[in-house]
Recover the amino acids of this structure.
């Protein structure tokens, strides 16, 4: 049950920036990287990674963790590490010349769930098997739910 709750919590962390974009449109949407470029001349993260998204993700994940009985510390850590994983994915994709919001199976899902799972491993006593189940469950859920979110006009692309 704890694995399901944790995967749900990571889902909240990753869905919040997408929902915030729909709710606020361009308001408060300053890019987290401020438009800066890396030494390769490409964007650091890209325009879709915003301060609003990161802040709201951490806040909503913290609140969701309290509601789920996991504690605010687990929520804050999960939200922050999920966003760090998302930024890591974006950084890697920019280095590979991929445009902002482009699809890259595995790179898009694994850091977003692995970073928070590793950060919360001791707090929640996850075993190695639990970690594999968490990553696998999140990967499958994201691949199944993404097209649904697209049909509901929550996502801009069907992945």
């Amino acid at each position: 049950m704890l694995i399901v709750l944790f995967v749900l919590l990571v889902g909240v962390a990753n869905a919040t920036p997408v929902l915030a974009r729909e709710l606020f449109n361009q308001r408060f949407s300053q890019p987290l990287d401020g438009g800066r470029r890396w030494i390769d001349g490409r964007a650091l993260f890209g325009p879709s990674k915003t301060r609003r998204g990161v802040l709201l993700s951490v806040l909503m994940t913290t609140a969701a963790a309290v509601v789920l009985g996991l504690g605010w510390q687990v929520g804050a850590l999960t939200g922050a590490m999920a966003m760090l994983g998302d930024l890591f994915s974006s950084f890697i994709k920019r280095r590979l010349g991929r445009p902002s919001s482009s699809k890259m199976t595995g790179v898009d899902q694994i850091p977003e769930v692995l970073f928070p799972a590793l950060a919360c491993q001791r707090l929640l006593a996850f075993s190695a098997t639990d970690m594999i189940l968490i990553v696998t469950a999140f990967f499958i859920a994201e691949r199944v739910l993404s097209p649904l979110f697209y049909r509901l006009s929550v996502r801009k692309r069907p992945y």
